């Protein structure tokens, strides 16, 4: 296209304007307001941030819990997602569409419904414990809920489809002749996988890991319900500050930290894969 | 390439994992059929009493209605805004345009708890807290990026010369948009509308913060039910939601199959 002089703005902007205006006024504006609160409420200064380093502070523990659970969720989800994506690009078309259907149905089932299901399955008298007791594998019910194990199960279950989508996007564009070349030059299947295939899927792996980690960081529903108040993560702690103790300053400070982390990771992710490519893979 | 042992094992594992993604949700079905008054697995008899209650209780019915109104309104608004925005950015096609696109996708990835804080801050002075208008506006902001993505994907496959031809033949901007551009990106617009509807219909975190008594959406009622953890009506509601998902999914799949057929 011919570069236009700056003074003549493209008429396309008129169509962009309504949504842009809505996001600026209802989203960006108030987010900046929240960031401002983190250094002005209850009093101007960095007091809210200093509280992070105070001794006896529960904040550092909550952030550490959040990071630990998010890292574990990311590692497990990406490993499981890799297996699914790999199988999906290497099966017949008919099987692939069946696999994609299962993946997308799980993607579409409401997070509340899925969390409720885990509540029914993992409780002390849940189906899992009852079945294990019935076959005599355990004598005492396993504590799945109100601990990190339950939160981890629920979060991984939610995140696996998010991990699969970028991996699929990167695996689908791999030129399979490269793999055949590797095999015909005498490499074993294992060598071809580790030295050729895996490095080729690196952008997808990085995008998948970052996407899962970003979504996990702000996850609220599953930790709040399956953690049962015992596993406090940042998002739930923010909600307690807002709804119960009404300490907007602390909540805003945590939101600012979370936002900074998310934006930094998004920036890194954009180096490897565009957001629209990832979600574009979800189309049937 | 010859399939190795590893590939076979991995394929089986992948199927098991995919079933692990879908099957747990089905536990809601037996739980919803329990004859008891509390959440439990039915032992020998089944009962539809919880479904009967779900479809006769004024509270649940009003939540279904409210969620439907909010989701339809937000999906309509979000699809219109997202579609116009996608066409605009496609026309602009510049570096600045791409930066704006990246910025407008942010509501999708900013943690919902932060969006909730933001909407709360701006809705209090505007008097939009706990109103339909507030929820519809908030859900529109969250859902429009989905339409932006799906329509942009459709536009990527649209031949720009068609638009030029239409203009050269004397069609106005508006006519070109209505008769040339919109018909050829219809699949993207429809997909965007469906995704936007689901995003609003399922939305819980922002809703928890900006609604109270007046507006009580379905996810909100389910959330409360889960927290109280006693009433099996929640299980019946979960079953209904699963069925709606399956029907919507089947409809989308059939529609895209038909489209693929008519294209060839």
Average pLDDT number of chain B? 90
Sheet of most strands of chain B: none
Question: Which overall shape of chain B is indicated by the principal axes computed on the Cα atoms?
Answer: globular
Query: Which spans of chain B of ≥5 residues are poorly predicted at pLDDT below 50?
Result: none
Characterise the protein shown here.
The complex is a heterodimer of chains A (284) and B (264). Chain A is an all-alpha fold. Chain A has helices at 12-38, 47-50, 58-89, 93-108, 111-122, 127-134, 148-172, 176-184, 189-200, 202-217, 221-226, 234-243, 248-272, 275-280. The radius of gyration of chain A is 23 Å and the shape is globular. Chain B is mainly α and 264 residues long. Chain B contains 14 helices and no strands. Chain B is globular and about 75 Å long. In chain B, 47% of the residues are buried. The model of chain B has no long low-confidence stretch (mean pLDDT 90). The interface between A and B is large, with 90 and 96 residues.
Provide a quick synopsis of the model.
The complex is a heterodimer of chains A (284) and B (264). Chain A has 284 residues and is mainly alpha-helical.
How are the SSEs ordered, and which strands pair?
The complex is a heterodimer of chains A (284) and B (264).
Chain A lengths: L11 H27 L8 H4 L7 H32 L3 H16 L2 H12 L4 H8 L13 H25 L3 H9 L4 H12 L1 H16 L3 H6 L7 H10 L4 H25 L2 H6 L4
Helix pairs in contact in A: 1-13, 3-7, 3-10, 5-7, 7-10, 8-9, 10-13, 12-13
Chain B lengths: L4 H18 L5 H5 L16 H8 L1 H35 L2 H10 L1 H4 L2 H15 L5 H25 L3 H9 L4 H12 L1 H17 L2 H6 L7 H11 L4 H31 L1
Helix pairs in contact in B: 3-14, 4-5, 4-8, 4-11, 4-13, 8-11, 9-10, 13-14
